[in-house]
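Quick note —
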Amino acid sequence: MQIFSHNPRGWAVKEITAEAAAQFISLRARYDISPVYIHASYLINLATHERILQKKSVALLIEEMNRADAIGAEYVILHAGSSSTDAARVARKRAIRALNAVARQGKWRVGLLIENTAGERGDISSLMTELSEIIGGVKGPLIGGVCIDTAHAFAAGYNIRSAQGAETLRDEILRHLGRNSVKLIHLNDSKRSAGSHVDRHEHIGCGNIGSAGLRQFITGEHFSGIPLILETPKKNDSDDIRNLRRVRKMLEREL
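Predicted structure written out below.
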């Protein structure tokens, strides 16, 4: 199982030169990093009612897909967006239309993963049924699956601290998305309680999910073997090292 740490600082739209892409591909081979995931810009909001913002979001997502293809990445991860101005189902329809607009603009080797959200005001993709609605509405091969964020799922009401809560999430994934739909797990603890609908990540084992809850989740039959990326708080490099060590200890107990 691959485990990485990821803490985005910001996103700039820059064209990747052939030289830079070749260098990345060479380094990736040297360090045996596979698969490669690119997180799309947080500026993208496909659910917005503002036409100019949605148009820019579609253009930026297309650019993200192009750049990911240029470096040979397997997946781009996307937050579908939010809108607090109207009903979530209306905003989801806008996001679906926007994704179909992206799909009409080209074909890419890279797959797009829709990430679950925490259920904050305006969120359109916190439940597995909502992810299913979005994915089912997009034509063609653009969408390659989903990324499940543990802190988001917990905040959205899936109490994965308990075995029953983890089973509920697993069953909903199987029923609404399919057995092989999960291509990545963002492994994070949560500062807030289950069902809080507040997106606040915490260090592994220091939040309300806890080490035992996260361990049972990633070592369970359905989620074991899926690559993990951490999006835990970071004030200095030692934070990443500490969190990575904790997760590796969880996995070592299964060996």
